[in-house]
Amino acid sequence: MLDQEMSIQEIEQWLRETDQTRISRLWNRADSVRRQAVGNEVHLRGLLEISNYCVRRCTYCGLNRNNSGLQRYRMTREEILACVDQIVDYGYGTVVMQAGEDYGIETEWLAGIIEQIKASTSLAVTLSLGERPLEDLKRWRQAGADRYLLRLETSDRALYRCIHPNLSDQPSDRIKILGQLKELGYETGSGVMIGIPGQTYQSLARDIDLFRRFDLDMVGVGPYIENPRVPLGAGQVCSPAIDPADQVPNTEELTYRVIALTRIVCPEANIPSTTALATINRDDGREKGLCRGANVVMPNVTPVDYRKQYEIYPGKACLHETAEACQSCLAARIASIGRSIGKGPGSRMHINHI
Ligand code: 5AD
Ligand code: FES
């Protein structure tokens, strides 16, 4: 069975499938669900990495506060608004402001910037700023923010605890925050990394089921990429050890499988073909993602000098490209697969049935 109601066991079987004919069926089904549910338009979201400060010590992520190898920056209001003007000029419908969990991004300061963007442009505003308190999320929603991205990284609790240390005494509960975001009326996005050491096929199948049960508006997934400057990339082992046959590989192939299965179980979701995917296949990773279920790309608009410091993992695609270079690169890639660039904000569409 390959439809919206498929069971967790069936999802796991598809993740483990080795028969090429059946795998081709998966790609075809995902592509046709994508076409019927969200159409041929590829929506572009201008990604602005506004700060690389972070209070957390996620063991997979280069922004980890213990990583002294990064020069930290926080963009000014003027710098942000100048990039927003560029996003408008390029015709993108959304600005995504992303950062580490940085409390130097003050609630009111950012609210003022959101208000300014909403008053002077027709852009949708997406935030991706970590596990901020409810009060901040409320204030920014009131200021006009439309969407919020907070990845679960993995729904395996023990693995999550191991790779995502708590802040002092406060347990991290991203499911709870995702619920708050929905309640506040944000379009809510989440996602996971694929191939984290210790991640099993079964837990990945559960992640995909969770996207469905949560009825997420956006789902972003990408391969886990080792960063030797932080503990997980330097060999941290999360016990208990799992059977090697159950370990999900952090490959391109598995990433496409997750994109395709997510599209099938969440037909209406906006699903990006991510930079991490483009990093492990620079030739045509983005295009393949778009042909196997994805319908969004997030061109980076961060000024190049800052972009180099936003090093979540090494070898990130587009690290040295200007915003302009990414714009023409992506336009060509989208045209090469016969798709068109979306107009307007590209919000989640609600359909009755497909
Ligand atoms: N490899 C791949 N993705 C990563 N992220 C963080 N570190 C890595 C890594 N080493 C992803 C996380 C985070 C998003 C912004 O980047 O999923 O939520
Ligand atoms: Fe940045 Fe291709 S998307 S160079």
How would you explain this protein's 3D organization?
Helix 1 (8-16) crosses helix 8 (201-213). The protein is built from 13 helices and 10 strands. The chain has a single domain (8-341), classed as Alpha-Beta Barrel (TIM Barrel). 40% of the residues lie in helices and 11% in strands. The protein is globular. Strands 1, 2, 3, 4, 5, 7, 9 and 10 form an 8-stranded parallel beta sheet that branches. The longest helix has 19 residues, at 20-38. By secondary structure, it is an alpha/beta fold. The structure holds 5'-deoxyadenosine and FE2/S2 (inorganic) cluster (FES). The site of FE2/S2 (inorganic) cluster (FES) has 7 residues, from helix 13. Residues 299, 318, 321, 325-326, 329-330 line the site of FE2/S2 (inorganic) cluster.
Topology:
Layout: H1 8-16, H2 20-38, E1 41-51, H3 77-90, E2 94-99, H4 107-120, E3 124-128, H5 134-143, E4 147-149, H6 157-163, H7 174-183, E5 187-190, E6 193-194, H8 201-213, E7 218-219, E8 222-223, H9 252-265, H10 275-280, H11 285-291, E9 296-297, H12 304-307, H13 323-336, E10 340-341
Parallel strand pairs: 1-2, 1-9, 1-10, 2-3, 3-4, 4-5, 5-7, 6-8
Helix pairs in contact: 1-8, 2-9, 3-4, 4-5, 8-9
The protein binds 5'-deoxyadenosine and FE2/S2 (inorganic) cluster (FES).
Just name the CATH architecture.
Answer: Alpha-Beta Barrel
Helix content: 25-40%
CATH level-1 class: Alpha Beta
Provide the low-confidence segments as ranges. Answer: none
Order of helices and strands: HHEHEHEHEHHEEHEEHHHEHHE
The N- and C-terminal alpha carbons lie at a distance of: 16 Å
